[in-house]
Amino acid sequence: MANSKRDLFLKRRLRVRNKLRKVNAGRVRLSVHRSNKNISVQLIDDVAGTTLASASTLEKALGVVGKNNIEAATKVGAAIAERAKKAGVSEAYFDRGGFLFHGKVKAVADAAREGGLKI
């Protein structure tokens, strides 16, 4: 029986998360979720089990409500980098989940790097 797209996505997500758990040296995780309409990003401290900062295209302050394009992803990446500085985080592991590293996911990572977050 062939794997569905959803099954392949879940396998890819588990593979990425397991690799992060092995190499994580106390750094926080920058987790990205991309839906058909929005992009959301969280800085997660897995040791404490808390979210340190988050940004999303659902926030009216970013001015990209409901947009799911590369421009919106860039603004979300810049916002998370700024909020990471306020939270005292300078470096994090990039958790792309099961999403491929191109397009909007890559735009978030590049904007966060430009904002000063070491990924």
From TrEMBL:
PANTHER family: 39S RIBOSOMAL PROTEIN L18, MITOCHONDRIAL, LARGE RIBOSOMAL SUBUNIT PROTEIN UL18M. HAMAP family: Ribosomal_uL18_B. Belongs to the universal ribosomal protein uL18 family. Part of the 50S ribosomal subunit; part of the 5S rRNA/L5/L18/L25 subcomplex. Contacts the 5S and 23S rRNAs. One of its GO terms (biological process) is translation. InterPro entries: Ribosomal_L18, Ribosomal_uL18_bac-type, Ribosomal_uL18_bac/plant/anim. Gene3D superfamilies: 3.30.420.100. This is Large ribosomal subunit protein uL18. GO terms for cellular component: cytosolic large ribosomal subunit. One of its GO terms (molecular function) is 5S rRNA binding. This is one of the proteins that bind and probably mediate the attachment of the 5S RNA into the large ribosomal subunit, where it forms part of the central protuberance. Pfam families: Ribosomal_L18p. Keywords: Ribonucleoprotein, Ribosomal protein, RNA-binding, rRNA-binding. It comes from Roseobacter cerasinus.
